[in-house]
TrEMBL record:
<keyword id="KW-0963">Cytoplasm</keyword>
<feature type="transmembrane region" description="Helical">
    <location>
        <begin position="33"/>
        <end position="49"/>
    </location>
</feature>
<keyword id="KW-0408">Iron</keyword>
<keyword id="KW-0479">Metal-binding</keyword>
<keyword id="KW-0902">Two-component regulatory system</keyword>
<dbReference type="Pfam" id="PF07730">
    <property type="entry name" value="HisKA_3"/>
</dbReference>
<dbReference type="InterPro" id="IPR017205">
    <property type="entry name" value="Sig_transdc_His_kinase_ChrS"/>
</dbReference>
<keyword id="KW-0472">Membrane</keyword>
<keyword id="KW-0418">Kinase</keyword>
<dbReference type="InterPro" id="IPR003594">
    <property type="entry name" value="HATPase_dom"/>
</dbReference>
<dbReference type="InterPro" id="IPR004358">
    <property type="entry name" value="Sig_transdc_His_kin-like_C"/>
</dbReference>
<protein>
    <recommendedName>
        <fullName>Oxygen sensor histidine kinase NreB</fullName>
        <ecNumber>2.7.13.3</ecNumber>
    </recommendedName>
</protein>
<keyword id="KW-0004">4Fe-4S</keyword>
<dbReference type="Pfam" id="PF02518">
    <property type="entry name" value="HATPase_c"/>
</dbReference>
<dbReference type="InterPro" id="IPR050482">
    <property type="entry name" value="Sensor_HK_TwoCompSys"/>
</dbReference>
<keyword id="KW-1133">Transmembrane helix</keyword>
<feature type="transmembrane region" description="Helical">
    <location>
        <begin position="61"/>
        <end position="89"/>
    </location>
</feature>
């Protein structure tokens, strides 16, 4: 209702209709001139002042006063000029900045129309009926339209807030996705490439000592393992880039992957590793998680335990699969906070697929238990 273009059309159409009615009514000349002149004032005030009233409160107030007076005067020249109320009431309502002001303006317009109607008809009952019905209808319509407008504005505000919240959530989800992917890559790099590089460093150091001591055969064996580990690290890197399954799992199931891991670990470190247990009933994601836990556990055995032997036990229970890693090293205090990524990374990796990690340790060794539900989804 505050679009001036539609008001241009409505006021122009009303003016044309009323002018035609005045000319066709064979009124006395002074009434005809007065009605047309008053109508012209009404129309001119709209195009010069009223159209500015939606943005300028002072212009709106001045135009409202002109509408009230000109409508009452026009009706005073002839009763059918009351048709002007059809645009006058909505105009003064929409020009008002507050509902209270709109009600006051409508009452003033009704009084002006009533005075004009009485002046042209001299019938008090007809005047009261016309003015009263017009006022009641205009107030009911105005309040109804105002309520609809307020509800519309409130809905729009809520929609804007909803869109803003959705945008913020989308941004938070993107950031969370980026952070999650970074954490995943950090775990993968730590559990694969970093461990392989650590093994390469240790093997290279051993090979150098063997060469310095004149043990050529031992040095050649160390160099062969360095080459093998380097190829494995390269393959793991390519698998990580391609986001495919780890290389050990691509050649068989989890049990076979653990056998190969234990064999290579024993050759590199001299620590005897035995593998036992049944094939786990897990999907590929679950197998990857347990394989990474086994790799990280053996890396910790190599770096911290001083163990001579270790075991990997895979068992399937009702509803879950467990990987138990034990060693006969000097142990550590699990309650002591560590700055390393190993145990924390394993817990995070297991938690992502509904699993759990339990660690116990004493002076006679360490036991690590990784538990997963049978059905693991990504």
């Amino acid at each position: 209702m505050d679009n001036p273009r539609w008001w241009h059309i409505a006021i122009a159409a009303t003016a044309v209709v009323l002018t035609a009615m005045v000319l066709a009514a064979n009124l006395p000349l002074w009434r005809e001139i007065g009605a047309i002149t008053t109508l012209a004032v009404f129309v001119a005030s709209w195009y010069f002042i009223g159209r500015l009233g939606f943005e300028n409160p002072i212009a709106g107030l001045v135009f409202t006063a002109i509408v009230v007076v000109s409508t009452g005067v026009a009706v005073g020249f002839h009763p059918f000029m009351a048709i002007l109320q059809c645009v006058a009431y909505p105009l003064v309502w929409t020009m008002s900045t507050r509902t209270r002001n709109a009600v006051v303006a409508n009452v003033a317009l009704s009084i002006a129309v009533g005075i004009g109607y009485w002046a042209s008809t001299r019938s008090l009952p007809e005047t009261a009926l016309t003015a009263g019905l017009s006022l009641a209808f205009s107030l009911a319509l105005g309040l109804w339209i105002t309520d609809i407008a307020e509800r519309s504005h409130e809905r729009q505000r809520l929609l804007d807030e909803l869109h803003s919240t959705q945008d913020r959530l989308a941004s938070v989800n993107r950031e969370a996705g980026v952070a999650s992917e970074r954490e995943r890559l950090a775990r993968e790099i730590h559990d694969t490439i970093a461990q392989d590089l650590t093994g390469l460093v240790l093997l290279a150091q051993q090979a150098r000592r063997d060469l310095a001591g004149g043990r050529g055969a031992e040095a050649a064996e160390q160099l062969a393992m360095i080459e093998e580990n380097a190829r494995t690290a390269l393959a793991e890197t390519r698998a990580l880039v391609a986001a495919s399954a780890p290389v050990p799992l691509s050649a068989g199931g989890l049990a076979e992957a653990l056998d190969r891991l234990a064999s290579r670990f024993s050759r590199e470190t001299g620590i005897a590793v035995t593998v036992s247990g049944t094939t786990a009933d897990l999907d590929r994601d679950g197998e990857v998680v347990l394989l990474r836990c086994a790799q990280e556990s053996l890396a910790n055995v190599r770096k911290h335990s001083g163990a001579r032997t270790a075991t990997l036990t895979l068992s399937a229970r009702e509803g879950s699969v467990r990987l138990v890693v034990t060693d006969d090293g000097h142990g550590f205090d699990p309650a002591t906070r560590s700055d390393g990524f190993g145990l924390g990374g394993m817990r995070d990796r297991l938690a992502l697929v509904g699993g759990a990690l339990d660690v116990s340790s004493s002076g006679s060794g360490t036991t690590l238990i990784a538990t997963l539900p049978r059905t693991v989804t990504a």
